């Protein structure tokens, strides 16, 4: 029976205890997470009494900050995190590719590395984005594809993590009247939309449909608001039927064009919020035998590399996405190195006229 006794022994490995986080220390010491972070970094602004209390709590809870990365390079880890949205194929998307190229090229040139993460719901819920900074794996974060509904920026602000929102800014009220106080580098979407609409109206267009997307992203709201106001100034009152959601994809753009062309309004032009939707719209129009630009003009946003090679070549608003990546990386490094000045850079956009636009059809 000795053999049975051996077989009954529980050989399962014990569970590893959960790591104590900065939040745990802050809660126990009755201070903010930012205060704990400053104690770890020996910030002189924190009183001796508070420092002593926090360090006693760290010892009591067994908190072990990760100093390995810092020890390799002194004061900084020389690593920046890039948080991408939880989208399929985000890493292969041409829009994100331009931004990532600008960031990574700049970081490499200045001797820094980048860490790519996707801000999936489970990732954020588990506070992995906070731990990246708390455990000193990274010195700061660049946030791509953010929307007004995403609250994780406030998590980073609470722990004093240097962060820059890339090609967006966040609205506080959903109407664009107030913006959340966050560092950002963004293209001038409103200015670009105004250029597109000025050009189309000069060509005689008045019935201009809008292929929109993501109403909880401020840059999309800025385009729609500019489009609406421009038409009102012309004495045209667009209704909800003048807008169709293209979901930022080619397939969505085709579906949006199909929806708009079924309306009672005779559209002579379509403005799409990105090039992919514009190309999808042109594909649908071509399939239906509607000639672009003879019967309807189409304008996009982005000026992605292949926009010049579709048929007809796409008139679009050129967004300096690579430069936004470069500037965002530089501004974040300035913040990491102690520069306190707020970041609110807006980069110019430009109308690129190609073959998808013409005088309004009679």
Task: Provide a concise account of the structure shown.
The protein contains 14 helices and twelve strands. It has helices at residues 2-7, 22-29, 33-40, 48-61, 68-73, 94-109, 121-125, 128-134, 152-158, 189-202, 218-233, 250-261, 275-287, 321-336, and strands spanning 79-84, 113-118, 140-144, 163-166, 184-187, 208-212, 243-245, 269-272, 297-302, 315-318, 344-347, 350-352. The strands form two sheets. A six-stranded parallel beta sheet has the order 2-1-3-4-5-11, sandwiched between helices. Strands 7-6-8-9-10-12 form a six-stranded mixed beta sheet, with helices on both faces.
- Helical content class: 40-55%
Please give the number of β-strands. 12
- Large-scale geometry: elongated
Contiguous helical run count: 14
Q: Compute the separation of the termini in Å.
A: 98 Å
- Order of strands across the main sheet: 2-1-3-4-5-11
Please describe the biggest sheet, giving its number of strands, its sense, and whether it closes into a barrel: 6 strands, parallel
> What's the SSE pattern?
HHHHHEHEHHEHEEHEHEHEHEEHEE
Segments where pLDDT lies below 50 for 5+ residues? 1-13, 67-73
What does this structure look like?
- The protein is α/β, with parallel strands linked by helices and 362 residues long.
- The strands form two sheets. The protein has a six-stranded parallel β-sheet with strand order 2-1-3-4-5-11, sandwiched between helices.
- Strand 8, helix 13 and strand 9 form a beta-alpha-beta unit.
- Helix 2 crosses helix 4 and helix 12 packs across helix 13.
């Amino acid at each position: 029976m000795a053999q049975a006794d051996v077989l009954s022994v529980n050989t399962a490995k014990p569970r590893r205890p959960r790591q104590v986080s900065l939040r745990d220390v802050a809660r126990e010491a009755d201070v903010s997470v930012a205060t704990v972070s400053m104690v770890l970094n020996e910030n002189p602004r924190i009183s001796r009494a508070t420092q002593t209390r926090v360090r006693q709590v760290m010892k009591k809870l067994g908190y072990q900050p990760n100093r390995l990365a810092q020890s390799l390079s002194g004061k900084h880890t020389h690593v920046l995190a890039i948080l991408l949205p939880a989208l399929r194929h985000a890493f292969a998307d041409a829009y994100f590719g331009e931004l990532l190229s600008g960031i990574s090229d700049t970081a490499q040139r200045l001797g820094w590395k980048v860490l790519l993460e996707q801000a999936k719901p489970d990732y954020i819920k588990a506070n992995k984005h906070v731990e990246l900074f708390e455990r000193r794996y990274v010195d700061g974060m660049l946030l791509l594809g953010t929307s007004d509904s995403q609250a994780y920026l406030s998590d980073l602000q609470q722990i004093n993590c240097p962060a820059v929102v890339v090609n967006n800014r966040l609205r506080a009220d959903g109407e664009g009247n107030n913006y959340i106080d966050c560092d950002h580098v963004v293209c001038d979407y409103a200015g670009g939309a105004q250029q597109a609409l000025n050009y189309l109206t000069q060509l005689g267009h008045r019935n201009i449909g809008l292929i929109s997307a993501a109403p909880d992203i401020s840059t999309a709201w800025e385009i729609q608001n500019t489009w609406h106001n421009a038409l009102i100034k012309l004495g045209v009152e667009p209704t909800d039927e003048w807008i169709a959601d293209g979901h930022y994809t080619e397939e969505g753009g085709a579906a949006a064009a199909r929806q708009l062309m079924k309306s009672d309004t005779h559209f002579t032009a379509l403005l799409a919020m990105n090039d992919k939707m514009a190309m999808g719209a042109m594909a649908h129009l071509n399939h239906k035998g509607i000639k672009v630009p003879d019967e309807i003009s189409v304008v996009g946003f982005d000026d992605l590399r292949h926009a010049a090679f579709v048929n007809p070549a796409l008139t679009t608003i050129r967004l300096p996405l690579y430069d936004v990546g470069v500037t965002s990386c530089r501004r974040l490094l300035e913040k990491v190195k102690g520069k306190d000045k707020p970041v609110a850079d807006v980069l110019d956009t430009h109308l690129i006229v190609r073959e998808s636009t013409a005088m309004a059809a009679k």
